[in-house]
Amino acid sequence: MSLKEERLQILKMIEDGQISAAEGARLLAALEEPEKKRTAGVASPTGARWLRVRVTDMSSQRVKVNVNIPLSLASVAMKLGARFAPEMEDLDMTELAEAIQSGAAGRIVEVEDTEDNERVEIFIE
């Protein structure tokens, strides 16, 4: 995904009310930072740089949400995600934060919400 596409995706999230203008501004600012600075302080021996969240409708298998966030903004993303899915008891944010800091890669979370018929997957890529 190009930098321009990432900016447009963030702006669309603001427009749709998925994130606040302040959260969008932080995400946009992070995209402007040089590559070294964005990944500084994140332990990732695999070279993973993105936190990816995908929500799929289980009946149609259609992807409803597919968001890529710089790994350096993972803490902001987790706070944002907790706000949108507070009822997901299966998702332990502490474990997610530990996986990110330990340099995990690949799918680190998969939760199925049978009430809403959705599957939420979180990847580090």
Describe this structure in words.
By secondary structure, this protein is an alpha+beta fold. The protein has one domain (3-124). The chain is built from five helices and four strands, in the order H-H-H-E-E-H-H-E-E. The protein has a four-stranded antiparallel β-sheet. The chain is globular, with a radius of gyration of 14 Å. The model is unreliable at 35-46 (pLDDT under 50).
Give a brief description.
By secondary structure, the chain is an alpha+beta fold.
Features of this protein?
125 residues; alpha+beta; 4-stranded antiparallel β-sheet; 5 helices
Write the layout of secondary structure elements.
Layout: H1 3-15, H2 21-32, H3 35-39, E1 50-57, E2 63-70, H4 74-84, H5 93-101, E3 106-113, E4 118-124
Antiparallel strand pairs: 1-2, 1-4, 3-4
Helix pairs in contact: 1-2, 4-5
Compute the number of structural domains: 1
Strand order of the largest sheet: 2-1-4-3
- Bulk shape: globular
The biggest sheet, with number of strands, parallel, antiparallel or mixed sense and barrel status, is: 4 strands, antiparallel
Oligomer: single chain
Order of helices and strands: HHHEEHHEE
What is the tally of helical segments?
Answer: 5
Residue stretches low in confidence (pLDDT < 50, at least 5 long) are 35-46
